[in-house]
Amino acid sequence: MTPLITPAELAAVLGEVTVLDVRWRLAGPPGAESYAEGHIPGAVFCDLDADLAAPPGAAGRHPLPETEAFQAAMRRLGVSGSRPVVVYDDADSTAAARAWWTLRYFGHEDVRVLDGGYRAWTAEGRETSTERTSPPPGDFTARPGGMPALTAEEAGELARRGILLDARAAERYRGEVEPVDPVAGHIPGAVSAPTTENVGADGRFLPRERLRERFAALGVAPGTPVGAYCGSGVTAAHEVLALTLAGIPAALYVGSWSEWISSPDRPVAVG
What DSSP state is assigned to residue 197? Predict the structure, then answer.
């Protein structure tokens, strides 16, 4: 089953799936405001910072939530293990991919991302709502380990022995600018692979073959172990989703750059 769903496909199953609105921007405005202004009917707002991550610290700006905390958050949002989940954001699936990956990591087997997000939904003239949805509690049971994840040490090793993709903008990878974290640069040996190149101008993912060509050009070959990281494990989840669409299994370094630089013993590369 593809991890993507189109607006038409979602419209046909509304009421039969749990829909999570995961709109979020690193620099704001808060996604809850966008949700209040209009959302897909029946969707529940999922706060990326509070529901899909633990508090920031040495493990990064968006570390994995504790199992019990994530389970409680998903149950509050109406998520059940036996009911499919669809997640969406504004357009390019960056935030939605973090929800997809985290749900899959904690064992939910049927999660799909709305390709093109809310923008694609409204572009087709589909119904929207400003009514806040209060779902009945779900029964989701979180079991970690459903998706491969990397520690800092494993990410550093993968950059040397396999392919570690850096999903941030190229100028952040090169260390020319760093608008968020206190240290600029990248993990030595990592390959620059901005997630913006996984989607078209409409925010929808490129076709499978074009994604395969993109990753092949970055050195991803059959049998090569692959991982991805970014600033805090959000856009890197988008990279993992794109790799999945291309038929390439990949691990996520959730702590990403914000965790990597928390230790002065870890090397930093620029250029």
Answer: G
Domain boundaries, the chain: 4-123, 152-260
Q: What is the pLDDT of residues 200-255, one digit of tens each?
A: 999 999 999 999 999 999 999 999 999 999 999 999 999 999 999 999 999 999 99
Question: Residue 17: helix, strand or coil by DSSP?
Answer: strand
Domain 4-123, classified CATH 3.40.250.10, yes or no? yes
Tokens at 88, concatenated? 């969406």
Whole-number pLDDT of residue 197? 98
Tell me what pLDDT residue 79 has: 98
Catalytic residue annotation: 230
For the entire predicted model, the pTM comes to: 0.97
**Same-fold call for 4-123 versus 152-260:** yes
Residue 1 has pLDDT above 90, yes or no: no
Strand order in the sheet with 163-166: 191-192, 163-166, 226-229, 251-252
Residue type, 215: F
Are residues 243 and 228 in contact, defined by beta-carbon separation less than 8 angstroms?
Answer: yes
Report angle CA 123, 129, 131 to the nearest 5 degrees. Answer: 160
Radius of gyration of the chain (CA): 18
> Which among 255, 240, 194, 253 has a CA at the least distance from the CA of 61?
255
Residue 166's nearest CA partner among 143, 146, 189, 138 is 189
Q: Domain 152-260, what fold?
A: Oxidized Rhodanese; domain 1 (3.40.250)
